[in-house]
Amino acid sequence: MEGVDGQLFFEPNALVGFCAGTDPIFLEYKKYVGPFHLTPIEAIERYCKIKEMKCKNTKHLTVIAYILPIHRETKRQNFEYSREWPSEKWAHTRLFGEKANVELQRYLLEELKNEFGIFGIAPSTEPKLFKVHRMHAEAYQGVWASTWSHRHACFAAGLGSFGLSDGFINERGKALRCGSFIIAHELPSDSSKRPASPYQYCNRCGDCVKRCPVGAITFENGYDKQKCSIKVTGTIPYIKEHYNINIYACGLCQVNVSCSDGFP
Ligand code: SF4
Ligand code: SF4
């Protein structure tokens, strides 16, 4: 974190999981995320079409998903700093930590290609594949959803479950950045570690409900993406004025709650 004090963005003990590209869960995501959410096969085929490449081996794809736990000092600072605004380290992690996360996906794909001749893509880094859609149907509450979701890839790969706040609860805690990409190579799947319920590890302790300054998390309705989004985008002027970077951030519901550092 060179823009602050040189601290690491992430704890080094990342988690990694694997899931077969043909796993039926990716078709189910079309129901839960939106019909536009890509299956791994669709993502690879669409990519090949865009690049006018011959598409081979779509039957043996693997989705690789990983979790980068946010550094403990950043979590501490985001808790102690304010009940309303994100701390400087949290905002830097959201901007530059996420840039590093995107670079990590590109780097790993390059390494796999150069070292092992394995082809792969990171859908969220491809502007022609990654789109954010506004959902008008009542079932989707008029909110946004994207064509590829890292957290859903993490769930598919057995790394954890969602929580009341829609954050991703896992062995290293909900305060994270995560990533995923697809490779045309078969690896053993971790799907047997996938819990039965998408909310399996949330104990509904209500800590995140109390931490959210705008009431975007409730026991009755879970997570209100719209309310959260208004609050989060409203942090841009504050972050610009106080930390001199252009980004939105919040994460107050991810720190000092029972699932911040691991399973609750
Ligand atoms: S803080 Fe408690 S209620 Fe909120 S997501 Fe974590 S475990 Fe669930
Ligand atoms: S990110 Fe902030 S606004 Fe959104 S639910 Fe969490 S605490 Fe609330």
SSE arrangement:
Layout lengths: L14 E6 L4 H8 L7 H11 L11 E8 L2 H10 L6 H29 L3 E2 L10 E3 L9 E3 L3 H7 L3 E3 L5 E3 L5 E8 L23 H5 L5 E2 L3 E2 L1 H9 L2 H8 L21
Antiparallel strand pairs: 1-2, 2-8, 3-8, 4-5, 6-7, 9-10
This protein binds iron/sulfur cluster (2 copies).
The site of one iron/sulfur cluster has 13 residues, from helix 7.
Overview of this structure, please?
The chain is of the alpha+beta class and 264 residues long. The chain has one domain (15-201). It has helices at residues 25-32, 40-50, 72-81, 88-116, 150-156, 207-211, 225-233, 236-243, and strands at 15-20, 62-69, 120-121, 132-134, 144-146, 160-162, 168-170, 176-183, 217-218, 222-223. It has a four-stranded antiparallel β-sheet with strand order 1-2-8-3, with helices on both faces. A two-stranded antiparallel ribbon has the order 4-5. A two-stranded antiparallel ribbon has the order 6-7. The protein is globular, with a radius of gyration of 18 Å. The protein binds iron/sulfur cluster (2 copies).
